[in-house]
Specification:
The complex is a heterodimer of chains A (491) and B (83).
Chain A: H1 2-13, E1 18-21, E2 26-28, H2 29-45, E3 53-57, H3 62-74, E4 77-80, H4 87-97, E5 101-104, H5 106-110, E6 119-122, H6 126-130, E7 149-155, E8 163-168, H7 169-183, E9 190-193, H8 202-210, E10 214-217, H9 223-233, E11 237-240, H10 242-250, H11 253-256, E12 264-268, H12 274-284, E13 287-294, E14 299-304, E15 323-324, E16 329-333, E17 346-351, E18 358-359, H13 363-369, E19 370-371, E20 374-383, E21 389-394, E22 399-401, E23 404-406, H14 408-416, E24 421-431, E25 435-444, H15 450-458, E26 469-472, H16 486-489
Parallel strand pairs in A: 1-10, 3-4, 3-5, 5-6, 9-10, 9-11, 11-12, 12-13, 25-26
Antiparallel strand pairs in A: 1-2, 7-8, 8-18, 13-14, 14-15, 16-17, 17-20, 19-20, 20-21, 22-23, 24-25
Chain B: H1 3-12, H2 15-19, H3 34-48, H4 54-59, H5 63-73
Helix pairs in contact in B: 1-3
Classes of the chains: A alpha/beta (491), B mainly alpha (83).
């Protein structure tokens, strides 16, 4: 019951310190602990039980964290939903996880009137506010062991159906304590969280909450709002993906905002382009901390601290990912599945108490990603004699677009459902703003237009998964086994 | 086509989105990629020379809002080539 202990401990140690802030309100640790306890009892009163799955559909706001912690107290699992997903994608997740309820922002709930759940609660409603209010007879909350599943976090998948990563309290605890042991938290941290709480990267916020930090939440990333939040809340830390950092640097407000309180920029989810790091390090003058993580591993499990980041005038082509955090183990496996010698490239695999309990209701996929108890990251790299992990490539056919994973096969499948499309192949192509974007090569009937195909896939794919460009070709290059030869498309 | 719609075509690479949305529709709820919305604001800053503040962002919801901003705040410092 890590999340419950976290809130109880912070209430005891820092009752009047602000725990969470959003654009509408803020709560102290005492208020947060009190509210999550009452909310848990209120949800229990509505029939939410231990083991139930409850979908959460919202932009980032205080109520999202309250809901996560309340469900964790009950022993129910929170299932965050990416609000940019199409109705079909959202419904698919709700069905596969067997969600009994959805809690979210009214406007987002309205987009999904047909979700197959028995209970819908809008966070802005009086019903939500009244849950667990004084005077109502409330059931006692259970005392839960640490291996109680707490969340199902979704990742993209080659199948086109998002995979549900099931994690327990022990996972969150292992990652938090391991991370904080090397990040050495101070007592006055204020973290501006730019990454959505529906994403696996939300574990970063949970980790800093464990240290008693104040976490500032925003309803979607806007550079101007993030900069204002740093100044207003005198933030010491900011958590973002490199492409967000590029947008911050481009905003005119960079020049007029007081950023002097910033100590660390935490970045991750996609590789840091050298030009962004160089400019940011020179202009911000604070420390940088790399976050290398994976939802299946429980979140961030490798970090490179400020003391090991290069000076702005001496940046190598590749900044190492960092060292594995205490409590977790990482190694590189060679082609034979044996541990590669230091400096030798292999697939990075990870084990430890942070890793997931498995994909929800998908033993086959769990077995595929697990080898002798180690989770395969799909990242190729080497570990040097100092324990630094250097990532050099990916073994999976994956596009990382501004920190979000997109599998080309999912886009190819969507394109092929158009009656005029005979074949399709999708690759990632470099993009200055997003890192990578999908580029589709399509074989289609004469007269088929780009707009028509984009309209078609829009019904099946969230905006971030849609091809940025479509090029028409005569034939998709395939090898004798029928597999697409993507290196020919990459030129 | 309005200035802001032209920028949207430039950012999305297709007129599909810009043509299909009304002046008073909420852009963020219209299916546009959230990153493209960020890029739109940065492009407006670049083209007009005007700083968009966090307070301004609270007022920018629809294409009409963005057009008003460009018309009222962008005139004096306009930099048509983005330089």
């Amino acid at each position: 019951m890590w999340l419950t202990q976290l809130a109880e401990r912070n209430r005891q140690c820092f009752p009047d310190r602000t725990a969470l802030v959003d654009e509408h309100r803020s709560v102290t640790w005492a208020e947060f602990d009190d509210r999550t306890g009452r909310l848990a009892r209120g949800l229990a009163g509505l029939g939410i039980r231990r083991g139930d799955r409850v979908a959460v559909l919202s932009l980032d706001r205080v109520e999202v964290m309250e809901t996560y912690f309340a469900l964790a107290r009950l022993g129910a699992l929170f299932v965050p939903l990416n609000h940019s997903l199409t109705p079909a994608e959202v419904t698919g997740i709700a069905q596969r996880t067997g969600a009994v309820a959805v809690i979210g922002e009214a406007a987002l709930l309205d987009r999904h009137p047909d979700l197959p759940v028995r209970l819908r609660i809008a966070m802005e409603s009086e019903e939500f506010a009244a849950l667990g209010a004084d005077g109502i007879a409330l059931p006692e909350l259970p005392d839960l062991p640490d291996d109680t599943p707490v969340a199902i976090l979704h990742t993209s998948a080659t199948t086109g159906q998002a995979k549900g990563v099931t994690v327990d309290h022990a996972s969150f605890r292992a990652i938090a304590l391991g991370w904080l042991a090397v990040a050495r938290p101070a007592d006055d941290m204020v973290l501006v969280n730019c990454c959505p709480l529906y994403h696996g990267s939300m574990v970063v916020s949970l980790t800093y909450m464990a240290a008693g930090a104040t976490v500032v939440l925003m309803p979607g990333f806007k550079p101007q709002t993030a900069l204002a939040a740093i100044e207003k809340h005198r933030a010491t830390h900011i958590w973002l993906v490199p492409q967000m950092l590029r947008f911050l640097l481009q905003a005119k407000a960079m020049e007029s905002t007081d950023l002097s309180t910033l100590r660390e920029v935490l970045y991750g989810a996609s590789p840091m382009p050298v030009d962004i790091y160089t400019e940011a390090a020179a202009r911000l003058g604070c420390g940088f901390r790399q976050v290398y993580g994976m939802t299946e591993v429980g979140g961030p499990f490798v970090t490179l601290g400020p003391e090991e980041h290069p000076a702005p005038d001496a940046v190598p082509d590749l900044i190492p990912a960092g060292r594995v955090v205490p409590g977790m183990s990482a190694r590189a496996l060679d082609d034979k599945g044996e541990e590669a010698a230091p400096g030798t490239i292999g697939e990075i695999v990870v084990r430890g108490p942070g890793v997931m309990r498995g994909y929800w209701d998908d033993d086959e996929a769990t077995a595929e990603i697990t080898v002798d108890g180690w989770i395969r990251t799909g990242d190729l790299g080497y570990i040097d004699r100092g324990g630094l992990i250097h990532l050099v490539d990916r073994s999976k056919d994956l596009i990382i677009r501004a920190g979000q994973n997109v599998y080309p096969t999912e886009i190819e499948r969507a394109l092929r459902t158009h009656p005029a499309v005979h074949d399709a192949a999708v690759i990632g192509t470099p993009d200055p703003d997003y890192g990578e974007v999908p580029l589709a090569y399509v074989v289609a009937d004469e007269g088929t237009g780009t707009a028509e195909l984009l309209r078609h896939v829009a019904e099946q794919l969230a905006p971030y998964k849609r091809p940025r460009r479509i090029e028409f070709i005569d034939q998709v290059p395939r090898n004798p086994a029928g597999k697409i030869v993507k290196k020919l498309l990459r030129g | 086509m309005s200035t802001v719609r032209e920028m949207l075509v430039e950012l999305t690479g297709t007129p599909e989105f810009a043509d299909g949305i009304s002046d008073d529709a909420d852009l963020s709820a219209s299916g546009i990629d959230s990153g493209d919305l960020v890029r739109l604001v940065l492009l407006i800053e670049q083209r007009t020379g005007a700083e968009v503040t966090a307070e301004d962002m609270d007022q920018l919801t629809t294409i009409a809002d963005y057009e008003r901003f460009v018309a009222t705040r962008g005139g004096a410092a306009a930099q048509p080539n983005g330089s």
